[in-house]
Design a protein that fits this description.
The complex is a heterodimer of chains A (472) and B (157). Chain A has 18 helices and 7 strands. Chain A is mainly α. Chain A folds into 3 domains: 164 residues, no CATH class; 193 residues, no CATH class; 91 residues, no CATH class. In chain A, the strands form 3 sheets. A 3-stranded mixed sheet of chain A has the order 1-3-2. In chain A, strands 4-5 form a two-stranded antiparallel ribbon. Chain A is globular. Chain B is mainly α and 157 residues long. Chain B contains 8 helices and no strands. Chain B starts with 6 loop residues before the first helix and ends in a 9-residue tail after the last helix. Classes of the chains: A mainly alpha (472), B mainly alpha (157). At the A-B interface, α3, α6, α9 and α10 of A face α1, α2 and α8 of B.
């Protein structure tokens, strides 16, 4: 007879593995969630083997403790992965957006895979699953055993979560680019870690000047805190900057909308995130530097004059929005908050010094950035299609020359339409606003789907067309 | 900010120390398998990490405290907080460092295929067992806290 601990652990592994196998059969917009389900089943099978081997050795307090650890690992770490898979089905996600987002993620992080899943919490977030599961097992399975289950150690799998009821809010999903930026920022921090002593020395010197009479222990604690504030601020700013390179001005629109729900525009959050006003100021500055927004006038650049009237009339409305935003970020109330505590102000002084390297890092890491030229060439035409209630998926120069467009342009045209035409509801008929927003989201999602189909078709067509010459 | 290890490290060290304790409990076996060797090397690395992290407590000098590796300090602080015997030893300067050196020695001897005194092996086993227990308590607490804090509605999150 096996011990109760062995029996419990074995049963848990079997149940979780079975559920993983069942989830694999669901319909997903990409192959990654099913692969993750397979991975869960494989982990469970391997753990069942381990549990059986331990049970065969007979019971002892040391073996029992190991078995309890395995049970808790299964319940606490392996089973929760199932909810990521369950939330990633075609029904639960903006299915037409998933593949284009995966492509963006893989272009930025070639060794990574992504799943997009819904969650009930109201935020966007990214979690690494594969490496997390594997590194915990480093204490239990040999490297050979782990590689047989998890594949090459370099591969990572990120789950990006979005707020469940926003499934069809295509425009808000611009925030995915920020989340994809988070794993990339690790590279910046790693590069910086090689010269970490410089950052440490700077912060330490700063704290020493601020607190000349504090004990060395108190100063060491403040240095530690300042480093934490700095790390989180840098992480957020890098991800914001990377997303601006990927999606252009849409990131600013989306950041503002998400920030409007925050507790305060000015305080550093409990989880050390920088104030929203600070992030918006940085984002605006990045877009000015990239040439999307005119710094002096706070207006959109790259907007052609020869466009249909409604498209021409949308431009001043966006400019007013940008000027309002300029007024918001011109207020210094967040900087006053930052100045209040020594560890926070020292951290942000160091962050400010790192801004040029952050921007350089972002430019180096986005190899095919979205540019003001593409914005100017594609967005006005797409906006015209939205005004005609057509999906903004292509630009028809003539009936024989149809060009697919960038995902960033589709999203930007949607945002500009929203800001120009759907800023507020009519008090007499509020339902009309909801209906029009729903309609806009549908057009955007359809455009993303059609654009992806066209790109795949063009690729396949080119392959067929060029096939014989390649063989030669 | 609470003292915490990353979740994968809680399990990694939990599995490792539990296995090492199991191995040290049955030391009659004359040879050491490559798998057991891997476990003991990892435990040796953990103790060395604690020795490095302990510098935050007593030196060698205040300036170098700032250059400590964050994960060494994090690991040391976690065990100092969670193992009362370590806190008691930390009261006297140098005692904790000597203690870590004494629990490290038998592992080094076994890995070098040299004999180690039974009492010293017993002390190392006892230390690793306390480490494993502390980690087990933390993961049990985490599971309880996470389940308690699950937001409504919990069905799909």
């Amino acid at each position: 007879m096996s011990s109760p601990a062995a029996t419990l652990a074995y049963l848990k592994a079997a149940q979780i593995g079975e559920q993983g196998a069942r989830l694999r059969l669901l319909s997903f917009p990409s192959t990654t969630p099913a692969s993750l389900a397979r991975l869960v089943s494989q982990v469970c099978e391997k753990l069942q083997d381990k549990i059986l081997a331990l049970a065969r050795r007979g019971s002892s307090p040391d073996v029992e403790r190991l078995l309890v650890f395995i049970s808790i690992y299964l319940v606490d770490q392996v089973a929760p992965v199932l909810r990521f898979i369950e939330g990633a089905t075609s029904e639960n996600t903006p299915a037409n957006l998933v593949l284009p987002l995966e492509k963006i993620g893989q272009a930025l992080l070639p060794d990574s895979k992504f799943i997009v899943r819904r969650q009930w919490r109201y935020n966007y977030r990214v979690v690494e699953l594969r490496e997390t599961l594997e590194s915990a097992l480093q204490g239990l399975l040999s490297s050979k055993e782990r590689e047989a289950i998890f594949g090459p150690p370099s591969e990572r799998l990120f789950a990006i979560s979005f707020p469940s009821f926003e499934r069809d809010s295509a425009l808000l999903h611009v925030n995915f680019a920020h989340e994809i930026g988070h794993p990339i920022e690790e590279r910046f921090l790693k590069e910086e870690a090689d010269r970490a002593s410089l950052v440490d020395v700077e912060i330490r010197r700063d704290i020493e000047q601020e607190l000349p009479r504090a004990s060395s222990v108190d100063r060491a604690l403040k240095v530690g805190e300042a480093k934490s504030y700095r790390r989180v601020a840098i992480q957020e700013i890098i991800s914001d900057t990377l997303s601006a390179h990927v999606f252009g001005p849409s990131c600013l629109f989306a950041l503002y909308e998400v920030g409007a729900l925050s507790r305060s525009m000015d305080v550093v959050s409990r989880d050390l995130h920088p104030p929203w006003r600070y992030r918006l100021r940085q984002m605006l500055s990045v877009l000015e530097e990239l040439g999307f927004i005119d710094k002096e006038q706070s207006t959109l650049k790259s907007w052609p004059q020869e466009v249909p009237t409604n498209v021409l009339q949308a431009k001043p409305k966006i400019d007013v929005w940008l000027q309002d935003l300029r007024a918001v970020v011109s207020q210094q109330t967040d900087l006053i908050e930052i100045e209040k505590e020594v560890q926070v102000r020292c951290a942000y002084r160091s962050v400010q010094k790192a801004i040029p390297s952050i921007r350089g890092f972002a430019s180096r890491n986005v190899t095919t950035p979205y540019t003001p030229r593409l914005f100017g060439e594609e967005v006005p035409g797409l906006l015209d299609r939205i005004y005609m209630q057509l999906p903004p998926n292509q630009i028809e120069y003539t009936h024989r020359r149809v060009c697919p467009v960038r995902l960033a342009s589709i999203l930007a045209s949607g945002w500009i339409y929203k800001i120009a035409e759907l800023t507020s509801f009519n008090k007499e008929n509020p339902e009309e606003y909801v209906t029009r927003m729903r309609g806009l989201n549908r057009l955007i999602l359809k455009a993303i789907e059609l654009s992806a189909v066209k790109a795949d078709y063009d690729l396949a067509f080119a392959r067929v067309k060029n096939g014989p010459s390649e063989q030669r | 900010m609470p003292v915490a290890l990353t979740v994968p490290n809680l399990y990694k060290y939990g599995f490792l120390t539990s296995r090492a304790v199991d191995f040290l409990s049955q030391r009659e076996t004359p040879s050491i398998s490559s798998e057991d060797r891997e476990v003991l090397v990892a435990c040796k690395d953990l103790i060395q990490k604690l020795i490095r992290g302990e510098e935050i407590l007593i030196g060698p000098n205040p300036a170098s405290v700032h250059n400590l590796r964050p994960d060494d300090v994090e690991t040391f602080s976690y065990f100092l907080t969670n193992i009362p015997q370590l806190r008691d030893r930390a009261e006297n300067a140098g005692e904790l460092r000597d203690y870590f050196a004494s629990v490290l020695a038998p592992l080094e001897a076994i890995l070098a295929d040299q004999p180690a005194q039974t009492e010293r092996i017993e002390a190392t086993r006892d230390f690793l067992s306390r480490v494993a227990e502390a980690l087990l308590d933390t993961v049990k607490d985490n599971v309880r806290r996470i389940h308690h804090a699950e937001p409504m509605p919990p069905a799909n999150e």
